[in-house]
UniProtKB/TrEMBL annotation:
The protein's name in its UniProt record: tRNA (guanine-N(1)-)-methyltransferase
InterPro entries: Alpha/beta_knot_MTases, tRNA_m1G_MeTrfase_C_sf, tRNA_m1G_MeTrfase_TrmD, tRNA_m1G_MTases_N, tRNA_MeTrfase_TRMD/TRM10
Residues that, per the record, bind S-adenosyl-L-methionine: G113, L137, G138, D139, F140, V141, L142
PANTHER family: TRNA (GUANINE-N(1)-)-METHYLTRANSFERASE
Primary role: Specifically methylates guanosine-37 in various tRNAs.
Length: 247
């Protein structure tokens, strides 16, 4: 998968050299290109922002550098276009199912806004030549899109075939499509079996794989009911068996 990231702070993306994604880059599974938006400015001060029309606080990112950046990275009339992702608290929510959908793309282009955002004509015009999603991580405000892009790249990157060591570990994740959709993963344990007088639940040491799977599902249902009750309403009633209903 190819990723292009446009930002005024390329240094934010140093973590992409580390750990799982660093290895995915070194092995060629992930081809990441980080670009400084100021490369597409032409004035002495390399200006990327200006005051908002209509007044109000803060600054807005100017359309010209963004237009040139998108023209350079996704030339008009090319046979392939990237999917453009624009992180913004006004976007639609980023979810595990969106991460899975993005993991199936060949090429993603991330546009990191700062200040009060990017002049709205940039996304409007980009939509005439490529698929565009404005995406939010949740109901809070970050200082810019960079950290949001790191989050999305990690969520998408770990789903690429060959990136995780254990290929089927993603199926048990919270929110994983299938049995864990709308469920939070329950508690996990490792050795030693007793630590500070606290014991690991017997069932996990029993070797009964069917009973362990049942217990994990019960714990996931209980944890979800406790911490995210609104998620239970999203569970498909047909996916619940008699036992689930008693939990
Ligand atoms: Cl995607 N960007 C910014 N700047 N703030 C956010 C966000 C994104 N998601 C939640 N808050």
């Amino acid at each position: 998968m190819r990723l292009d990231i446009v930002t005024i702070f390329p240094d934010y993306f140093a973590p992409l050299d580390v750990s799982l994604l660093g290895k995915a880059r070194r092995t060629g599974l992930l081809d990441v290109h980080v670009h400084d938006l100021r490369e597409w400015t032409h004035d002495r001060h390399r200006t990327v922002d200006d005051t908002p029309y209509g007044g109000g606080p803060g600054m807005v990112m100017k359309p010209e550098p963004w237009g040139e950046a998108l023209d350079a990275l996704a030339p008009a009339g090319a046979s392939r276009v990237p999917r453009l992702l624009v992180p913004t608290p006004s976007g639609r929510p980023f979810t595990q199912s969106m991460a899975a959908e993005l993991a199936a793309e060949e090429w993603l282009l991330f546009a990191c806004g700062r200040y009060e955002g990017i002049d709205s004509r940039v996304v409007e015009e980009a939509r005439t030549r490529m698929p565009v999603d404005e995406v939010s991580l949740g109901d809070f405000v970050l200082a810019g899109g960079e950290v949001a892009v790191l989050v999305m790249v990690e969520a998408v990157g770990r789903l690429l075939p060959g990136v995780l060591g254990n290929a089927d570990s993603v199926a048990d994740d919270s929110f994983a499509p299938g049995a864990m959709e709308a469920l939070l993963e329950g508690p996990v344990y490792t050795k030693p079996p007793i630590w500070r007088e606290r014991v690991v639940p017997d069932i996990l040491l029993s070797g009964h794989h069917g009973a362990i799977a049942r217990w994990r599902r019960d714990e996931a249902l209980r944890r979800t009911a406790r911490t995210r009750p609104e998620l239970l309403a999203r569970l498909d009633p047909d996916s619940l068996d008699e036992h689930d209903r008693q939990v």
